[in-house]
Amino acid sequence: MTDHSPGGGVLAIDGLRREFGAFVALRKLDLRVSAGEFVALLGPSGCGKTTALNLVAGLIEPTAGTITLDGHRIERLPSEKRGIGMVFQNYALFPHMSVADNLGFGLRMRRRPKHERVERVSRALALVRLTEHAHKYPGQLSGGQQQRVAIARAVVVEPRLVLMDEPLSNLDAKLRLDMRTEIRLLHQQLGLTTIYVTHDQTEALSLADRLVVLKDGAVQQIGTPSDVYEQPANAFVAAFMGYRNVLEGDLRAGDLHTGSLALRTRPGTTGKSGRAVALIRPDDLRLLPDDAAPAPNAIPVRVRVCEYLGREFAIEAVGPGEQVLHGRAARPLTPGERAVASVDPERVLVFPATEGAAVSAPELELVAQGEQG
Ligand SMILES: Nc1ncnc2c1ncn2[C@@H]1O[C@H](COP(=O)(O)OP(=O)(O)OP(=O)(O)O)[C@@H](O)[C@H]1O
């Protein structure tokens, strides 16, 4: 094992499973991560993301399955022998060591000569723009600065693989955005193979080359951000990716009939029939004044809430059959006002209703929160 491998290693995970007593936290994870790739594990609380990460890190052992890094089986190796860098949400810095010593620690453990340590620490400090803070202690830094130290400490040893577990979750909204860009930039510069755990779909979409969406310990979809966003594999993934409007009904000849309205759906569903759910992103549901020109899939609604978003307005409205709908309007609408909700059939995804049952209220709430970010 060498510290000097340029870029990152190649990771293969096969049939990875972890049980805690009778509870299965991770069912079966099969994943290939190429050298230099950035993969995000995404899903709601309790879906098994941290379990998967901890198995790769060597903090817990698998019940079954293998993990291969650069051709070597590592699933039973002690954590410190795996050549992996780790960044956690609580920074986990050594409080009694200066920033520079925190960074140099891993290199000292690897017995790198002093001149090399000094050189690499100063390069890593410059990379995360903390050069002038080198002699401070972690307690004297802001949360964002501490997290930059933690990231620099993980990458300074040039690990074959970097694991990050919700590294931005303790930071405020603005800092989160700044750090997100910083992590992406760092990844572009160093090309380290990275696995990143988050429950925030916007974070995963913006950072990762590929996403692994998990639910109840089971993989739902593996794909690029645009695959997962545009072509979610099932209703759960769709709801998690922000398809907040969920309408259930009978699918006949490409139309979903809910009992109180009929919705034309994406071409390709015409041949299918039966109980189904249609999912629509709020961005794709346009709220128009009542007297607007005819629009596709026009649903008469009454406006309930109008929120200012900056460039446009988020509208909550009630349609036929008391169906609650979330959409966007170019101009403000008044609560109580009649309006028309319209959606291009191309943007109406349809899944069998059995999958729709998997979209539970708490998960939708989580999506709703994520949407504000
Ligand atoms: N040591 C343990 N003993 C028993 N159950 C555990 C243990 N660790 C995790 N679990 C359970 O396994 C499931 C998956 O946990 P995990 O921490 O991987 O979820 P997660 O997706 O990372 O969630 P979060 O985002 O909340 O951290 C949870 O239901 C959790 O309660």
TrEMBL record:
The record's keywords, sorted A to Z, are:
ATP-binding, Nucleotide-binding, Transport
Domain of life of the organism encoding this protein: Bacteria
Residue ranges crossing the lipid bilayer per the database entry: none
Q: Where is the ABC transporter domain?
A: 11-241
| Pfam families documented for this protein | ABC_tran, TOBE_2
Q: Which GO terms describe its molecular function?
A: ATP binding
Q: Which protein, by its recorded name, is this?
A: ABC transporter ATP-binding protein
What is the scientific name of the source organism?
Phytohabitans aurantiacus
Organism classification: Bacteria, Bacillati, Actinomycetota, Actinomycetes, Micromonosporales
